[in-house]
Amino acid sequence: MIMSSSALILDANLDDPDRFYAALVESCRDLPPEEALAFSARLILLLANHVGDHAILAEALRLAAAGEPAA
Amino acid sequence: MGTYDYPRYAARPLAELKARSTSTADVAIVGGGMVGLTMALELARRGVGTVVLDEDDTVSHGSRAICQAQRTLEVWDRLGLAEPMMARGVTWNEGRVYHRDRELYSFNLRKDSRARFPAFINLQQYHVEATLAEAAHREPLIDLRWRNRVTAIDVAGEPLRLGVETPEGGYEMPARYVIAADGARSTIRRQLGLQFRGKVFEDHFLIADIVMDAPFPAERRFWFDPPFAPGQSALLHMQPDRVWRLDFQLGWNIDRDRELEPEAVRSRVRRMLGEDIAFELEWVSIYTFQCRRLDRFRHGRVLFVGDAAHQVSPFGARGGNSGVQDVDNLGWKLALVLDGRAPESLLDSYDAERVHAADENIGHSTRATEFITPKTDVSRIFRDATLELAGRLPFARAFVNSGRLSTATVLPADGPGNVGGSTVRSGVPVGAPCPNLPAISCDGAPGHLLGRLDGAGFVCLLFVNGRTTLSADDRRAFAALAGADIPVRTLIVDRAGGTADADHLPDPGGLLADAFGAEDGACWLVRPDQHVAARWPAFDPARVASALDRICGRSGAVNPRGA
Ligand SMILES: Cc1cc2nc3c(=O)[nH]c(=O)nc-3n(C[C@H](O)[C@H](O)[C@H](O)COP(=O)(O)OP(=O)(O)OC[C@H]3O[C@@H](n4cnc5c(N)ncnc54)[C@H](O)[C@@H]3O)c2cc1C
After folding, report:
1. Which superkingdom, per the lineage (chain B) (predicted)?
2. Chain A residues lying within 8 Å of B393, measured CB to CB
């Protein structure tokens, strides 16, 4: 795991990415779009609180907004 | 209204007003609302005479502001008026938030239970203004003129000239400075052609003040999406005289007249409170709101305060309360400029500091509004997700925004009014008002800190552990600072205790030192508005004197805004 608290981690950082991805899809696969959106919102809030650092969150918001073309 | 008889203040004969207006007033205040009257009283306390012109002959019509914040009470306390306001008002510190049919959580707004005043009292604006008006009538330095409507201002020459209309006819009023406290529809603002920029929110709110005997406690209750008003929000507050404030969100597309029909309002109230509570309607109105401000609050010798300068939504009670903080900031500066001890440029720091505060208030108010009334389906999903989480996981309560309630603005530490100094990791930061904690009075009786910093001038708080640590040089330096043209009084806060007098504040146990985050020997410079301007680890009279010059605009250029 990369130890960094000052910047958004952009290198792969999960021990078992497949496992998390499957769990994520599993959690909301059967939800109608509106409920899936609510699920995502709750998840984001939980994780944002865990991250805690505004600069990191702001960077994540910027990248998620996909304003820039892929390098 | 049922529980309130409006006072009618007598207008003075035109001949008398004309005779009194042949000489130039130092300061004319346009508008005798809660902000204009507080301004006049604050200036009087600093020895500055004012003429107050108000178009009406009574206090605020109907029901508007009710929540008067701690900092506002502290400012009124300097004027000797916090006691009567407290005696009449309903004290409260707690808020409770509901979502749909359940209670989510409650919170306490009082940061320190040892503080002299609660987080809020609820007191109707008409009671507030009546108390201020009576005090202004008693004050010889205030010339309060009812039924005097200002219709024009001429800023071309010196003095400034106001055109005033009275029931008997018009007259002209010359003044060195004009303070525009004439509210959201400010005539002065329009006369000067100034832009009032910001956002208008597409929503209506219905206010119903009702009289009832109800079992609810003195706390702020806020509902998101309640069963009695699906999809909307609602708010409940206790006021004095068995009056309760209900505030219902209505939405944008409404039939105003129908909503205002007493029977429609009554059935709305019954849906909220149940069928068995008997009540009378005292006051009903529908309001919309804006979040906006002037670009600058100083235009030459015209200074804007209160709603004339800025407007916010009522969520957070930041309207009147921020207007009183404008007064707090402007009073001492204008007094120093008027008697020539500080250059006029000091007034630019009023502009910089209170524009900063207005932006903070507008930011809070805008964010609260967006949370309460999500603008899109997606933002509503996020809002509801937040509320849903807040019911079961306490961390999410921090995101819930039913209004961030008014507190004192911490002014920028590196702005023109402050010097900064060493950073504080905890305690009172530079730019914040001193906390009003228990402090022994000069005569040894229990009192509070702001009573010792009576808000008249600059004070240097020197935190020591035993007075013997002070040298004869130190004592000479205190005397020199106290004797300067802008005096700085040194108040020795002694952790070791000792006896109290005008210069010594025993602080056994270090309650104050710890609250400030002050080490032994540390020195804090406090402005006349009781805000911390600088702090240093040790007392150095040269630094105090140069900080004073900078704060008063007497050395170098005043920092441009935002610098
Ligand atoms: C529903 C509602 C609830 C609110 N709740 C709160 C709250 O809980 N707490 C809070 O702090 N704020 C609250 N506010 C905001 C608060 O009411 C205002 O911020 C406050 O009234 C501003 O005071 P002011 O003295 O600047 O202006 P105003 O109260 O508008 O006073 C302006 C004065 O100027 C006079 N005037 C106007 N034009 C002229 C003229 N041309 N010549 C002479 N005189 C003139 C008027 O007669 C009036 O007396 C609320 C507002 C609303 C609408």
Report:
1. Bacteria
2. 46
Domain B14-90+120-196+293-364 belongs to what topology?
FAD/NAD(P)-binding domain (3.50.50)
Domain tally, chain A: 1
CATH placement of domain B438-551 = 3.40.30.10
In the structure, which protein residues have their CB atom closer than 6 angstroms to any atom of ligand 1?
B 30-36, 53-56, 60, 64-67, 125, 149-150, 181-184, 187, 207, 287, 306-308, 314, 317, 319-321, 323
pLDDT digits (tens, 9 = 90+) for B20-78: 999 999 999 999 999 999 999 999 999 999 999 999 999 998 889 999 999 999 999 99
Distance, in Å, from the CA atom of B510 to the CA atom of B479, rounded to the nearest integer, reads 25
- pLDDT for the residue numbered B423: 59
CA distance A38 to chain B (A): 6
Q: Is residue A69 part of a domain?
A: yes
Average pLDDT, chain B: 94
Interface residue B378 vs chain A (CB under 8 A):
yes
Question: Where are the CATH 3.40.30.10 domain residues in chain B?
Answer: 438-551
Tokens of A17: 């990415």
In chain B, which residues fall in CATH 3.50.50.60? 14-90+120-196+293-364
Angstrom distance (rounded) from CA B530 to CA B286: 38
Q: Which residue's CA is the closest to the ligand 1 atom numbered 30?
A: B183
- Nearest ligand 1 atom, CA B321: 11
Closest of B406, B293, B299 to residue B356, by C-alpha: B293
Residue A25 within a domain: no
Domain that holds residue A36: 31-71
Does the beta carbon of A3 lie under 8 angstroms from any beta carbon of chain B?
no
* Bridge partners (DSSP) listed for residue B178: B28, B302
Residue A20 placed within a domain: no
pLDDT band at A5 (very low <50, low <70, confident <90, very high): low
pLDDT-derived band at B421 (thresholds 50, 70, 90) equals low
CA of A28 to the centre of ligand 1 (A): 51
What pLDDT is attached to residue A2?
47
Helix (H, G, I), strand (E, B) or coil at B107: strand
Structure tokens at B326: 């404008």
Q: What angle do CA B164, B170, B175 make, to 5 degrees?
A: 40
Which residues in chain A have Cβ-Cβ distances shorter than 8 Å to B382? 41
Q: Token digits for B249?
A: 């969100």
pTM for the whole structure: 0.95
* CB–CB contact B381 A49 (8 Å): no
Residues in chain B with CB shorter than 8 Å from the CB of A34 are 381
CB B304 within 8 A of CB B351: no
At B431-440, the pLDDT tens digits run 999 999 999 9
What does the pLDDT read at residue B556? 53
Alpha-carbon distance A11 to nearest alpha carbon in chain B (angstroms)? 28
Q: For residue A71, is it within any domain?
A: yes
Over residues B478-505, the pLDDT tens digits come to: 999 999 999 999 999 999 999 999 999 9
What are the tens digits of pLDDT across the range B254-313? 999 999 999 999 999 999 999 999 999 999 999 998 999 999 999 999 999 999 999 998
Those residues whose C-beta lies under 8 Å from the C-beta of residue B351, and which sit 6 or more positions away, are B296, B297, B298, B561
Residue whose Cα lies nearest atom 50 of ligand 1: it is: B65
- Return the biggest CA–CA distance within chain B: 77
